[in-house]
Hints:
Blueprint: E1 3-7, E2 10-14, H1 19-30, E3 35-38, H2 49-62, E4 70-76, H3 83-91, E5 95-100, H4 120-129, E6 133-135, H5 149-164, E7 170-172, H6 178-186, E8 191-195, H7 197-201, H8 204-208, H9 225-235, E9 242-244, H10 253-256, H11 271-281, H12 288-300, E10 308-313, E11 323-324, E12 331-332, E13 342-344
(4S)-2,6-dioxohexahydropyrimidine-4-carboxylic acid binds at residues 15, 41, 106-107, 136, 218-219, 247, 249, 263-264.
Amino acid sequence: MTTLTLRRPDDWHLHLRDGAMLAAVLPETTRHFARAIIMPNLVPPVVRGTDAAAYRARILAALPKGSPFTPLMTLYLTEDTDPDDVAAAHASGLITAVKLYPAGATTNSASGVTDFDKVRGVLDRMAEIGLPLCIHGEVTSPEVDIFDREQVFLDTVLDPLRRATPGLTVTLEHITTSHGIDYVSDATGKIAGTITTHHLMINRNHILAGGIRPHYYCLPVAKRNTHQQALRRAATSGNPRFFLGTDSAPHTDPNKLSACGCAGCFTATNTLSCLAHVFEEEEALDRLEGFTSLHGPAHYGLPPNDATLTLTKQASPVPYPTQIATDEGPVTLFDPGHPLFWQVT
Ligand code: DOR
Ligand code: ZN
């Protein structure tokens, strides 16, 4: 197989930032994707409906001329979030989901949730109105090893939370372990999981063996190879509970290449080449469309895109820039460490 035509993909987890960074990275996503769930972890975060409306307007203003891209907005859940504000933002069609960050779990998560009982009212209301919750699934307790934080979250936070609000639609985002895959596969109720491009292509050896590679550092941090293999099996299985959320997360090189570097892999530009590579390796190219373009809309109750996108396998490697220039500084593009041959044509 050397050409592959898919329904146009969506990205169910994307960081666009704001200002100069937004202007530079937005075209990297809109070139290939029709829609994306936009993460609300700005500084300050997108907490109220009015914040989301203003951020949406800034994204639309930054779109390349004539782009049909639709940003699917989210609100950042805090312990002070007002259920009525959330419900109004949902009723007006402004937001597609609410995002739960455990406080301290990742970039700009300080306003996240520490006491899950304090958000019970919002979660109950969301279940009532059918508004999905996107979850960064890691505990933050310092005594839990960083490689175990996802697994511990499943038993100590996610499962009790879902039992307390059984009608809630949940997206467990950027799954990095076989435990997360098993939880989503086996759970009853409305739950799905997103998987990033980079977690399909790297494991912790890529970050740490033979020298430290800050551009592979992201959160949740990549786990051992056996977990990477579980992610690859789930993504290519055809199970509609798993779909793409790139978590493409731009940081400038000075912020990545620092004594305390930021977490995030920037994959928007070459994600589809990377995914076609992975799916071909797994002999599952026929399942790529489900992962990129069908399972996500089904979970969020949206129609798949009518437009299509074609990938063609080239004889020589597809050239990609090393960096994207932004007015805040260069952002290094994810490099899987080997050539890519599938090109969006
Ligand atoms: O690697 C990550 N980067 N993981 C996250 O959860 C947040 C993101 C960011 O905003 O930079
Ligand atoms: Zn993210």
